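HTH domain-containing protein
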Amino acid sequence: MTEATDLAERAGDRDPRIGLRAVSALRKLVEQLESVQVRSARNQGWSWQEIAAELGVSRQAVHKKHGRH
């Protein structure tokens, strides 16, 4: 997780250009990680409701976002 650590560090940079780029990259990384974990959960038989509960969102929201994959 060196990339994530580096990005988190840069997100706190005093230069807004560096900080904002790091925030954007972190957002993309989190989206990728979420997709991987949702696929893993579905492959292990988890329901959309169980996944939603762990993510703190509604079943409809998680299904809309990841259901088409």
